[in-house]
Specification:
By secondary structure, this protein is of the alpha+beta class. Helices cover 25% and strands 19% of the residues. A hairpin with a 4-residue loop joins strand 3 and strand 4. The longest helix has 17 residues. The N and C termini lie far apart (55 Å).
Amino acid sequence: MGHKISRTVVGELLNAQKFSLQGNRKPLEGGQSPDRDAQFLHINDRVTKALAEKQPVISVDTKKQELVGDFKNNGREWRPQGSPEEVRVHDFIIPELGRAVPYGVYGHRRQRGLGERGDERRYG
């Protein structure tokens, strides 16, 4: 049943039909929101007024949760040639370690920031 064919030939046939290997793209939500500038102008106006009134102003930013442990990381670091860090094959959560929730807090008046790694077990 069917015909035997190599993946090289399949690739050549797809190429001839103008197909190519491609990564995903994220255009489904459309471009930039028309309200984006208005949002930031509103926030900036509130911050400027609060600082003028000697009120405290902070910004809080959270990042995507990360698994804690020896998992593959898309970042890079300098290591001796030929000795990459060994990591787990599968990215299954280690229940005892949980996930990290990186976040930062920035104080506008003193222009100082603090970066932390929260623990999902403490913060829900």
